[in-house]
Design a protein that fits this description.
The structure is a single chain. The protein has 15 helices and 20 strands. By secondary structure, it is an alpha/beta fold. The chain folds into three domains: 5-97, NAD(P)-binding Rossmann-like Domain (Rossmann fold), CATH 3.40.50.720; 100-312, UDP-N-acetylmuramoyl-L-alanine:D-glutamate ligase (3-Layer(aba) Sandwich), CATH 3.40.1190; 322-461, Mur ligase, C-terminal domain (Protein-Tyrosine Phosphatase, Chain A, Alpha-Beta Complex), CATH 3.90.190.20. A nine-stranded mixed beta sheet has the order 6-7-5-8-9-10-11-12-13, with helices on both faces. Strand 14 and strand 15 (330-334) form a beta hairpin. Helix 5 (125-138) packs across helix 10 (284-299), helix 8 packs across helix 9 and helix 14 packs across helix 15.
């Protein structure tokens, strides 16, 4: 854990005692802060009090003596309206920050030169974050991975010289980190998302821009108009920018040319890596992720050879286009994280012949947007509440069966793929649905898929256990 020593002896109000909020409270107390914590959930308050934390309704405290207000990122700062604690803090003139801001302050105080890579974007940030951490770890560097990817940043080891930090940042976290200053900051892409919390697309983009604007090196994907404008603006302001593209060559930056990553500089271009044959980095979206990872790693001193080695051995991110098993010419892929049609599109675009397991609790819009990928689907195996709706959309375009359960779908898809003599194929779980009709969450669904695959005769598992761990 990282003790928040920069607030030692100071009074700090904190709201939000979920996973990251609880960790933040512990880190503040460990560093010597006088913390008053609260949550709208009485059970969370009871848990904190049982651990010895000072808890009190923040409506009753003296805000004039608070040095800082720490807000959990899941709590509204601006839209649809500020949380009541935000109004109280602002009325008292107390600055409002989150756990990422506390981390960057500790880094500046104790190890300002330790490399820090921060990643954001609407899509692909978790894969890119995991890939960067893997490249650094595989090259023997002391690497800490956390943030929005699932490990609270203040639970990592404290900053010290030579320790590398790779931190995924959501827009909520960036909004609460006014002095965010990574060694390398990545903005992958921007499409409308979380507008209920940010009000407008422009406000959402402005928040994301802060991460790269404060970076020593800004790595920006320029395949959408918002990011293209941001790259130009950061550069005009004197920032160092590395542009990334998966769609077209660049005069300067790193771009994908087929499966090759090409670095362009000074009028010359040279391949720096080839993703061909790396199953965990299939598809154009992963070419962008890999290009961004390569650019960030170069920025913090990793060699091209180390990057190539790390790319080649990347095990993938659990539940995200994760190859989990193989039998003959058939690969079994866990893409349980694809909980809507847009999220399923990358996997469907990455395999030429697919035995597709889809369904669950349907989202608005169904799978009609996936029609361009239907020619790739040898057969669909439909499960859960969405089965009838998806069958109607597939109609006569794609052969399908209503399997009902995931276990039956895996069994039938594996048998049909085995009989397919047309070449390599994938049995792909990419549900385009939420899991809640049959499973607690997409992780449990993905683990169930892995277990069903592991139970097949003659299967060679590509991961370390039937729960999907590497």
């Amino acid at each position: 854990m990282i003790p928040v020593t920069t607030l030692a002896g100071k009074k700090v109000a904190l709201f939000g005692l979920g996973g990251s909020g609880f960790a933040t409270a512990r880190a503040l107390i460990l560093g010597g802060a006088d913390v008053t914590a609260w949550d709208d959930n009485p059970d969370s308050v009871t848990k904190a009090a049982a651990e010895g934390m000072h808890t009190a309704d923040l409506r009753t405290i003296d805000w004039s003596v608070q040095s800082l207000f720490v807000l959990s990122p899941g709590v509204p700062l601006t839209h649809p309206k500020p949380h009541w604690t935000v109004d109280l803090a602002r009325a008292a003139g107390v600055d409002i920050v989150g756990d990422v801001e506390l981390f960057v302050r500790e880094r500046r105080a104790h190890a300002p030169d330790c490399p820090f890579v921060a990643i954001t974007g609407t899509n692909g940030k978790s894969t890119t974050t995991a890939l960067i951490a893997h490249i650094l770890k595989s090259s023997g560097r002391d690497t800490q991975l956390g943030g929005n990817i699932g490990t609270a940043v203040l639970t990592l080891e404290p900053p010290k010289a030579g320790r590398f930090y790779v931190v995924e940042c959501s827009s909520y976290q960036i909004d609460l980190a006014p002095t965010l200053n990574p060694s390398a900051g990545i903005l992958l892409n921007l499409t409308p998302d979380h507008l209920d919390r940010h009000g407008t697309m422009q406000h959402y983009a402005d928040i994301k821009e802060r991460l790269v604007a404060g970076s020593d090196v800004a790595v920006i994907g320029v395949d959408d108009s918002h990011c293209e404008v941001i790259a130009d603006r950061v550069e005009r302001a004197g920032g160092k920018v590395t542009r990334i593209s998966r769609r077209h060559p660049l005069a300067s930056g790193i771009y994908a040319e087929g499966t090759k990553l090409v670095e362009a500089s000074g009028g010359a271009a040279q391949p720096i890596a080839d993703l061909d044959g790396i199953q965990t980095l299939r598809g154009g979206h992963n070419a962008q992720n890999a290009a961004a990872a390569a650019a960030a790693c170069l920025a913090v001193g990793v060699s091209i050879d180390e990057i190539r080695t790390g790319l080649a051995s990347f095990p993938g991110l659990k539940h995200r286009m994760q190859p989990v098993g193989r039998r003959g010419n058939v690969v079994f892929v866990n893409d349980s994280k694809a909980t809507n049609a847009d999220a399923a599109a990358p996997a469907l675009s990455s395999y030429e012949r697919i035995y597709w397991i889809a369904g669950g609790l349907p989202k608005a819009g169904g799978i009609s947007t996936l029609t361009p990928f239907f020619p790739r689907i040898a057969k669909a195996y439909l499960i859960g509440e969405a089965a009838a709706e998806f069958a109607a959309t597939l109609g006569e375009s794609v052969a399908y069966e209503i399997s009902g359960t995931l276990e039956r779908a895996v069994e039938h898809a594996a048998a049909d793929a085995d009989r397919d003599e047309s070449g390599p194929s994938a049995v792909l779980l990419s549900p385009a649905c939420a899991s809640f009709d049959q499973y607690k969450n997409f992780e449990v669904r993905g683990d169930a898929f892995v277990s069903h695959v592991a139970a097949l005769d003659g299967i060679t598992m590509l991961i370390g256990s039937a729960t999907g761990d590497k």
